C-alpha cells in the first residue's frame, strides 16, 4: 500500500485466502486467525479491499480499526472468496503485494453450486427454484457486483479458468491449493500444510469448530430481522449503535448471530419442495459443465480431482 503522509500505517496483508465460495474459507480463516503468528482482518472477511476502499486513505483508516490490534505478527491475512473470481482483483493484489502468498480451497463443483444455492436461500437472497437458478448458459466475464458475486453459481466452479488467471500475476510457488475434503476429514494435516507454506510454527493446533455452515435455520424470523433493511434501522445504527459499537465490531456480532441461528448438525432444507428426481437431474447437468475444466485443472496442478469428484466418468475435451 502506498505511503500516506502523516498517517499511521496499518499492516497490509501479505497472505490472502482467495476462495472458493462455499468451500470452507470462513472455517479456515477462523482456524488460521487463532495462530499466534497470524494477524487476521476478521471483520473484513469477504470484503474485497480494493472494491470497498478504493482510496489508500480510506483503506488505511479501515484497516486501523481492526481489533485486537496488530502486534507484529509475521503473517498478515485477509480472506475474501471473490478475489479468485475476478481477475482485476488478483491484478490489484499483485500490484500492491507482488510477493503475496495465496491460499485457495477447491470443492466438488457440483456440490459447491448446490450448497451455494441453499446458502443464499438461507440468507434470503435467492428466491428462484433450483432449476432456474442453477441451470443456465454460463458467462465468461463479469463486472464486480453483488449479484455476480452470489448468483454466478456455475462459473464459481470453473477452477482451472480461475487458477489460470491467477497464475498470470503470481507464480505456482505463491499459490497453495487445498482440498475441501481434507478440510472436513483431515483438518490437522491440512493445517500443517498451510503453516508450512507460511513458514510458521506447524505444531500449533486451533479450536477446529467449523464456521459458516449452510445448515438449517433455527428461526426464520430472527434471520429476517438481522437481514432486513429499513430507514428506521439505519437511523438506529447511525445515531445510537455506531457511537458505541463501530462497524468492525458490528460485523463480528452479526456473523455471530448468523452462527447461533444455524443448526450445523442438520442438512439444509429448502423452503421450496425439491424432488429427488429434480435434484438428480440438476446434479447430472451441472456435472457436464465441469468435466473439461476439472480435467484441465488436474493437468495444470498434477492433481486427481477428476477421479475424486466424478469417478470413472470418461474425460472430455469438448
Can you give keywords for this protein?
single chain; 318 residues; alpha/beta; Rossmann fold; 5-stranded parallel β-sheet; two-stranded antiparallel ribbon; 15 helices; 7 strands; 9% strand
Number of distinct helices: 15
Indicate the overall shape: globular
Helix content: 40-55%
For the termini, the CA-CA separation is 43 Å
Q: Can you tell me the residue ranges where pLDDT is under 50 for at least 5 consecutive residues?
A: none
Oligomer: single chain
Number of domains: 1
Task: Provide the spatial order of strands within the biggest beta sheet.
Answer: 2-3-1-4-5
Extended strand count: 7
Structural class determined from secondary elements: alpha/beta
Order of helices and strands: EHEHHEHEHHHHEHHEHHHEHH
Explain the overall architecture.
With 318 residues, the protein is of the alpha/beta class. The protein has one domain: P-loop containing nucleotide triphosphate hydrolases (Rossmann fold, 3-Layer(aba) Sandwich). The chain contains 15 helices and 7 strands. A 5-stranded parallel beta sheet has the order 2-3-1-4-5. The protein has a two-stranded antiparallel ribbon with strand order 6-7. The longest helix is centred in the C-terminal third of the chain and has 26 residues, at 276-301. The chain is globular. The model has no long low-confidence stretch (mean pLDDT 89).
Quick recap:
The chain has a single domain (15-211, 275-310), classed as 3-Layer(aba) Sandwich (Rossmann fold), CATH 3.40.50. It is built from 15 helices and 7 strands.
Amino acid at each position: 500500500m502506498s505511503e500516506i503522509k502523516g498517517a499511521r500505517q496499518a499492516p497490509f496483508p501479505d497472505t490472502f485466502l482467495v476462495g472458493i465460495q462455499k468451500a470452507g474459507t470462513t472455517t479456515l480463516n477462523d482456524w488460521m486467525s487463532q495462530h499466534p503468528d497470524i494477524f487476521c482482518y476478521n471483520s473484513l472477511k469477504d470484503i474485497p479491499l480494493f472494491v470497498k476502499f478504493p482510496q489508500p486513505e480510506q483503506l488505511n483508516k479501515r484497516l486501523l480499526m481492526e481489533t485486537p490490534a496488530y502486534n507484529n505478527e509475521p503473517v498478515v491475512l485477509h480472506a475474501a472468496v471473490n478475489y479468485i473470481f475476478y481477475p482485476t482483483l488478483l491484478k490489484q493484489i499483485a500490484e500492491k503485494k507482488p510477493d503475496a502468498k495465496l491460499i485457495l480451497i477447491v470443492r466438488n463443483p457440483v456440490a459447491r453450486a448446490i450448497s451455494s444455492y441453499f446458502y443464499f436461500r438461507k440468507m434470503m437472497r435467492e428466491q428462484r427454484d433450483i432449476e432456474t437458478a442453477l441451470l443456465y448458459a454460463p458467462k465468461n466475464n463479469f463486472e464486480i457486483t453483488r449479484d455476480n458475486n452470489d448468483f454466478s453459481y456455475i462459473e464459481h466452479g470453473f477452477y482451472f479458468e480461475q487458477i489460470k488467471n491467477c497464475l498470470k500475476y503470481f507464480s505456482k510457488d505463491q499459490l497453495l491449493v487445498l482440498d475441501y475434503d481434507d478440510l472436513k476429514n483431515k483438518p490437522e494435516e491440512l493445517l500443517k500444510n498451510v503453516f508450512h507454506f507460511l513458514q510458521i510454527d506447524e505444531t500449533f493446533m486451533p479450536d477446529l469448530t467449523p464456521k459458516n455452515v449452510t445448515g438449517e435455520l433455527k428461526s426464520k424470523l430472527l434471520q429476517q430481522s438481522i437481514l432486513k433493511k429499513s430507514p428506521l434501522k439505519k437511523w438506529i445504527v447511525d445515531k445510537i449503535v455506531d457511537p458505541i459499537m463501530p462497524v468492525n465490531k458490528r460485523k463480528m456480532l452479526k456473523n455471530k448471530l448468523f452462527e447461533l441461528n444455524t443448526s450445523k448438525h442438520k442438512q439444509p432444507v429448502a423452503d421450496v419442495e425439491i424432488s429427488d428426481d429434480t435434484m438428480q437431474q440438476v446434479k447430472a447437468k451441472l456435472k457436464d459443465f465441469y468435466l473439461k475444466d476439472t480435467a484441465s485443472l488436474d493437468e495444470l496442478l498434477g492433481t486427481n480431482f477428476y477421479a475424486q469428484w466424478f469417478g470413472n466418468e470418461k474425460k472430455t475435451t469438448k
